[in-house]
Design a protein that fits this description.
This protein is of the alpha+beta class and 170 residues long. 26% of the residues lie in helices and 34% in strands.
Length: 170
């Protein structure tokens, strides 16, 4: 089990744009996928949440996203969002790179994504609602974009309620 440090808000590397993965790199990528899985599961154990992580968050600047939904793992290599619905919705977003902060953002309600898997097979998937938001959040990391950069306005930042409750007890 390899747990990598998650880059935290303020680290300039979080703003780097990730490079495409070449088929010849697949053997190296499987190691990164395991690191992403282990790191995310450790985060989930410590914070009680975590469904996806992007490679740049562990200082690997490749276009790679790992999701684990309902104990099902999906690896997205070189993902491309090929469709975004016109309909947007607002939500409070959080991130492993700033675990006690929430940001109110707007996301597309539906998206379509084209990507490669670990066997270099191409797939297309459609996400809606919370999975659409989750994927858009991780996809932004590949382009060096953080949710705090997409805040709706200057009042769209808040500490998580459980963080505030902890300090009320002091």
């Amino acid at each position: 089990m390899t747990i990598k440090p998650i880059l935290q808000l303020g680290n300039p590397n979080l703003y780097k744009i990730s490079e495409k993965i070449h088929k010849s790199e697949l053997s190296d990528i499987s190691v990164v996928v395991q690191d992403l899985h282990d790191t995310m599961m450790e985060f989930k154990k410590n914070y009680g949440c975590g469904r996806a992580i992007a490679a740049p968050q562990i200082n690997i600047f490749k276009r790679l996203i790992y999701m684990n939904i309902d104990n099902r793992s999906i690896v997205f290599i070189n993902p491309e969002i090929t469709y975004k619905s016109d309909k947007l919705y607002e939500l409070w977003d959080d991130c492993m790179s700033f675990p006690n902060l929430m940001v109110k953002v707007r996301r597309h309600k539906n998206i379509k994504v084209k990507y490669f898997d670990l066997n270099w097979q191409e797939h297309e998937v459609e996400f809606e609602g919370d999975l659409s938001e989750l994927f858009q959040h991780e996809y932004d990391h590949l382009d060096g974009i953080l949710a705090v950069m997409k805040a709706i306005d200057k009042k769209s930042l808040s500490f998580k309620p459980e963080y505030l409750e902890f300090y009320k007890k002091l």
